[in-house]
Automatic annotation (TrEMBL), chain A:
Keyword annotations: Membrane, Signal, Transmembrane, Transmembrane helix
Protein name from the UniProt record: CHRD domain-containing protein
Segment forming the signal sequence: 1-27
Record has Transmembrane as a keyword: yes
Chain segments annotated as transmembrane: 225-245
From TrEMBL, chain B:
Biased composition (Low complexity): 66-76
SUPFAM superfamilies membership: Sortase
Database matches in InterPro entries: Sortase, Sortase_dom-sf, Sortase_F, TAT_signal
Gene3D superfamilies for the chain: Sortase (2.40.260.10)
Name of this chain's protein: Class F sortase
Keywords, comma-separated and alphabetical: Hydrolase
Region (Disordered) residue spans: 37-76
Length: 253, 229
C-alpha cells in the first residue's frame, strides 16, 4: 500500500515543481567537458575527448592516435561508477589483460556508443561495423544522449573508453585469450586501449566548428570603377590614335 | 572655310589619344594597387614554433615571468583592449557569445570594426585557451580589424589590456590555417597547462555562393609577462 501511494506522490511533486528539474539541466546547458586519454594494456594510445552539452544534445570530438590501424575500435561513454580509470595493475584474473569486466568497477557500464552512424545507445556497444577503424581517430558527431548520461557528466562519473588493442603486436586482433564480453572474439578486440575521465573543460562552452570572421570584400575585385574608367580610356586612346594615323596618311597623300 | 575648322587636326587627335592613355593608365594603376589580399599562412601547416621559455618576459617594464603561475580565471579581470604592434592592430574588445546553432558569435559588421573576446571561455591571462575573434574584411567596409593577422609571425607580441588596468603580454608561438569544416577544435579550444591566447579570423578562398571564407587563420600565443594594474 505504501509503495502504491509513494509513486503518485513523487509524480505529483515532480509535476508541481517542474522548474527544479529544469534548473538542474539548464545549469549544465552549454557546458563543455574534456577527457585526456591514458593508455591501457600498454597500448601506447594517446588522445583527447571533448563533449559540449546543450541540453541533452552532445557535440562530441575524439582525437586519438596509436591505435591498431585497420581494425574496429569500439568507443563509449561509460557511466554509473567511480568516474575513474583502471590501470594495467588491475588484471585481477592475471590473464595479461585489463578486461572490460575488470575496468567496469572504475568506469561503469556503457552509457552511449560513439558510433559513426545510426544508433548511439548501449545496444550498439559492440557494433564493430559502425566504429572507427583507423590507427589515428578524428571523430566528430552530434547526437542526443539520455538523461542518465547527461547526469553522469554533471556529477563527474562520465568516462571515455576506447577499445581494441594489439597487445602481442601481430597486426591483428588475435591470441589465445578470449573476450570476457563475447567468447567468440579475441580479448584484444574488446579490451580497453585508452581511458579518460571527463571533467569540466577550461573552455566553459566550446564553440562548434569554425568562425565566420569574414564578409568577403577583399576576396573579389575592388575598385571596379577604376578598372572601368581605365578600360574605356584606353579604348578611346586607341581610337583617337587610329584617327590621327589615318589623317597623317591623308595629309601625306 | 578651311579644312582644319571642318575637321579636328591630326595634332588634336594625337593629343586626345595621349590624354586618354594617361587617364587609362592612371585608372588601372589605382585599380591594381587598390586590390588588397589578406596575408595567408600556409594551409594546414604550422609555422615554426619558438622556444617561448627562452624569451625574456621583460617587454613591459615591471613585468614578471609568471607564465607558470598564471592565476585562476576568477582572479583575472576581463579584457578590454588588444594591441598587436607587428601588424599595427589596436582595438577595443567587445564581448562575444554563441549563436543559436552553437557556433561562436562574431562582431557585427560595422565601419568601426572591432575585435571581440569569447566570454564563455577563459579570460586572457588565466590558465586555459582565451579566444579573441576579429573579421578579416566585410563586403561593405573593406579590410577588417584582423585583416593582416596572417602576417603575424612567431615571436611577435600581443598585448591584452584588462579592466583593472593590468596588461597581459603574449608571445606568438605559431600561425595556422585550417578549413572550417576541419576546424582543429581540441588544439584551439582544448585545455592547456598555462595561459594561452588564440586569435581567430578568416582566410583561404572565398566561397561567393556561401558568402563565406573556406578557412580560419588561427594565431596561437603563450603568456610571457604581465604588467601590474
Amino acid at each position: 500500500m505504501r509503495k502504491a501511494l509513494a509513486l503518485p506522490t513523487i509524480a505529483l511533486a515532480a509535476a508541481a515543481f517542474p522548474l527544479l528539474g529544469m534548473s538542474a539541466a539548464s545549469a549544465a546547458d552549454g557546458g563543455s567537458y574534456q577527457a585526456d586519454l591514458g593508455a591501457l594494456n600498454a597500448s601506447g594510445v594517446t588522445g583527447t575527448g571533448m563533449v559540449t552539452l546543450d541540453g541533452n544534445t552532445a557535440t562530441v570530438t575524439v582525437e586519438a592516435s596509436g591505435l591498431l590501424d585497420g581494425s574496429p575500435h569500439a568507443q563509449h561513454f561509460h557511466i554509473g561508477a567511480e568516474g575513474t580509470c583502471p590501470t594495467d595493475a588491475d588484471d585481477a584474473d592475471d590473464d595479461g589483460f585489463v578486461s572490460v569486466t575488470e575496468g567496469a568497477p572504475y568506469y561503469g557500464a556503457i552509457g552511449s556508443s560513439l558510433t559513426t552512424e545510426g544508433d548511439t545507445s548501449p545496444d550498439s556497444g559492440l557494433a564493430i561495423d559502425r566504429f572507427p577503424t583507423t590507427g589515428t581517430i578524428t571523430y566528430e558527431r552530434t547526437f542526443e544522449v539520455t538523461e542518465d548520461v547527461h547526469e553522469a557528466f554533471d556529477n563527474g562519473t562520465a568516462v571515455l573508453v576506447l577499445h581494441g588493442v594489439d597487445k602481442d603486436g601481430s597486426g591483428a586482433y588475435d591470441g589465445d585469450v578470449m573476450s570476457d564480453l563475447d567468447p567468440s572474439l579475441p580479448m584484444e578486440a574488446t579490451a580497453p586501449a585508452a581511458c579518460g575521465s571527463f571533467a569540466a573543460a577550461q573552455m566553459g562552452t566550446t564553440p562548434a566548428g569554425g568562425a565566420e570572421t569574414g564578409g568577403g570584400s577583399t576576396a573579389g575585385m575592388e575598385q571596379e570603377a577604376a578598372f572601368g574608367i581605365g578600360a574605356v580610356a584606353l579604348v578611346g586612346a586607341a581610337a583617337a590614335g587610329a584617327v590621327a594615323y589615318r589623317r597623317r596618311q591623308a595629309d601625306q597623300a | 572655310m578651311t579644312e582644319p575648322t571642318r575637321h579636328p587636326s591630326r595634332r588634336t587627335w594625337l593629343v586626345l589619344a595621349l590624354v586618354l592613355v594617361v587617364v587609362g593608365a592612371t585608372a588601372l594603376v589605382v585599380g591594381i594597387t587598390g586590390q588588397r589580399t589578406a596575408p595567408q599562412p600556409a594551409a594546414g601547416t604550422r609555422s615554426a614554433p619558438t622556444q617561448t621559455s627562452d624569451r625574456p618576459a621583460d617587454s613591459i617594464p615591471g613585468s614578471g615571468s609568471d607564465t607558470a603561475e598564471a592565476p585562476p580565471a576568477a582572479d583575472v579581470a576581463a579584457p578590454v583592449r588588444v594591441d598587436i604592434p607587428a601588424i599595427g592592430v589596436s582595438s577595443d574588445l567587445m564581448r562575444l557569445g554563441l549563436n543559436a546553432d552553437g557556433t561562436v558569435a562574431v562582431p557585427p559588421l560595422e565601419a568601426d570594426d572591432r575585435a571581440g573576446w569569447y566570454e564563455r571561455g577563459p579570460a586572457p591571462g588565466a590558465v586555459g585557451p582565451a579566444v579573441l575573434l576579429g573579421h578579416v574584411d566585410s563586403a561593405e567596409y573593406g579590410p577588417g580589424v584582423f585583416f593582416d593577422l596572417g602576417a603575424v609571425a612567431p615571436g611577435d607580441e600581443i598585448q591584452v589590456s584588462r579592466a583593472d588596468g593590468s596588461v597581459a603580454v603574449f608571445t606568438v608561438d605559431r600561425v595556422e590555417r585550417h578549413p572550417k569544416d576541419e576546424f582543429p577544435t581540441i588544439d584551439v579550444y582544448g585545455n592547456t597547462d598555462d595561459a594561452q591566447l588564440r586569435l581567430i579570423t578568416c582566410g583561404g578562398d572565398f566561397d561567393a555562393g556561401a558568402g563565406s571564407y573556406e578557412d580560419n587563420v588561427i594565431v596561437f600565443a603563450t603568456l610571457t609577462g604581465t604588467s601590474p594594474a
